[in-house]
Amino acid sequence: MAIVTMKRLSLLALKADKENIYNALIRTASVELKRCEDLPNCVVCDNSADREVVAERVKRAEEAVSYVSEQVDRFNATHAKSQAVTPDKNSFARPKTEVNFDDFIGFDKKAAAVEREISDLFALRDKLAELNGQLTQLNNEYANTLTYTKLPHPTTWYRDTECALVRLCLVPTSEIADLTELAEKFDTVCLEKIDASASTALVAVVCHKADADFLQQAAALGLVQSGFVCDVLPSAKLQTLDSRIADVKKQIEQTTADVCNYSHKLGQWKVYIDYTELVGKKLAADGDLQQTSSAFVLEAYYPADSEDKVLSAVAAVTDCVETYTYDIGETEFAPTLCRNNGVVKQFEFVTNNYTPPDYHEIDPNPVMSFFYFIIFGLMVADIGYGLLLVAAGLFAHFAIKQKTTIRTMLQLFGICGVAAIIVGAMFGSFFSFPLQNIFPWWNPLIPDPSQYPMVMMAISLMFGVVHITAGVACRMAVKIKHKQALSAWFVDFPWVIVFVAFILAILNPALDMVGYEPYLALKLPDAASKISLYVCLGALAVAIIFAGLDSKGILGKAMASFNAAYGLINYFSDIMSYIRVFGLMLSSALMGQVINQLAGMVLGGGGVGYVFAVLLLIFAHMFNLVMGILGVYIHDGRLQYVEFFGKFYTGDGQLFVPFGCDTRYTLLK
């Protein structure tokens, strides 16, 4: 359980064999390419134009997949289930399409056909966009024509004569009365209301040219000349528009159906995306090579225990090759690959979310996973909740066949659910019901935190001291690995003694403070407490004195010692952070008790009350668990990242990613 030893590979081969060598390295899933150092008489290939072309193909394919999926969703939302389109998509258990390696590498034979299909799809997309534009235009024209439905003549009929002004006008409906009153003041003005809606009225105005002032005065009331032009009866035009709208809708329906017919191609298009991205990665790798007119030099990293597999794979595809392997130097960069057992491996997810370990430091996951496990159990602390988490983890393990983020998280929660069961048994809590009510002989090791809050608070703080001590011990291990044993033993080891002795020194006062009688048997003899206190102070003095061991100059050593003494405040702050363990556990427990009390009140109603009580217990406890887990996941991780990792962890590593294996939609077999 550690960071895997890596080696560096240099390979000299002919350009004619480059593609075969790439494919052989991809097949091993054990090689990460790196940029070659500059070599004399060699050049770097500039293929940025080709890479842009490939990137554009990937973009077009992604747009095609997204567009078809969107149209299928719209089609299914507006049609009966019997007409629904079932797109080609993967199952929850296997979210990636499993593809044979040889079929994937040989997908170039199908690439041209896929590109033609995508071009045809985009032609349909453009046609559909044009039809939707036509439909919008026709609908707007239809809405404008509706206002003139009752018009007895085409609008072109309303035109001036030699002596009269003829106008087809619109006016606010609320101004009709005032407009009529105004028209009555003129002898040669005729006003006729043709139609009116709640907001606008359509009127015809005829007046002698001598009374043209009427139109100017009416404008103040909102009278405006209509700009609508129709050389046929508006009612007849509406019938024509109805026919044209129906025809366009029919074309849209057919075109949408044609687009949805591509839904069964989505799986193949996603394979095409991954294949095309691999082509782009090969082109990017070409830019990292040192090349001549006929040969190239390639460099890569690989796990030391995979050396035979890597070299054999290369030798199997070409005889004209020279390979050289090198060990990684103490200061040389290398990607990080952690190899742990099945349990600890799930906790790598937590570390990687923070930052992967650097290749040259120790793997923090074995130690971190233990403390994450315990803290998770202390925060959840319920047998029932733990069983649900274990069930979720087992479901993910057996139901989800491929490695996904959801599978990893559920497996992590499932493992931590075991800790919740163990700590829940110590509390005697089953969905916040006391086990003593079911099994009178059950004797909890930890009392109810709502009655004895100081007990759990003291346990949380003392566990925090242990956790921080483990972090300092890990810092010792890091220094010893880097051949700084003197600093490890004289600068860091005294702090380990300080924390251990501190726990022993305050144990008796802490037990007296919590006031829980069964724990009083754990008290140490007074002499042991005093000796522990003296040891703690002595170790603290040693830690402060030797804090400047790695510093230069008297002033530097003095400043280091001062910082070490001042650092006691930081350690105190770190220890107080573990109160969050008590807080999260208490909040979840009290919420569970409230849920049970509410269910008991509903249960007292009898009859239907039994049903509602069961539903309340199920949904409320599920809600309490989900909300609690969100907080536990965040705060447990925070204690690892800040209080634990802060003592020794550098991070900023780069995870080992085998060349060609980081596909998005496919899983190579």
Describe the structure.
The structure is a single chain. 58% of the residues lie in helices and 11% in strands. It is α+β, with helices and mostly antiparallel strands and 669 residues long. The strands form five sheets. Strands 2, 3, 9, 10 and 11 form a five-stranded antiparallel beta sheet that branches. Strands 6-7-5-8 form a four-stranded antiparallel beta sheet, with helices on one face. Strands 1-12 form a two-stranded antiparallel ribbon. It contains 19 helices and 15 strands. The protein has three domains: 91 residues, Alpha-Beta Plaits, CATH 3.30.70; 75 residues, Alpha-Beta Plaits, CATH 3.30.70.100; 310 residues, no CATH class. The relative contact order is 0.13. Helix 2 crosses helix 4 and helix 2 packs across helix 7. The chain starts with a strand and ends with a strand. The radius of gyration is 39 Å and the shape is extended.
Q: Tell me the fraction of residues in β-strands, as a range.
A: 5-15%
Beta strand count: 15
Q: Mean pLDDT, rounded to whole units?
A: 92
User: Measured on Cα atoms, how large is the radius of gyration?
Assistant: 39 Å
Overall outline: extended
Q: Give the termini distance in whole angstroms.
A: 27 Å
Helix content: 55-70%
Poorly predicted parts: none
How many individual helices? 19
In this structure, how is the largest beta sheet organized?
Answer: 5 strands, antiparallel
Number of domains: 3
The secondary structure category is alpha+beta
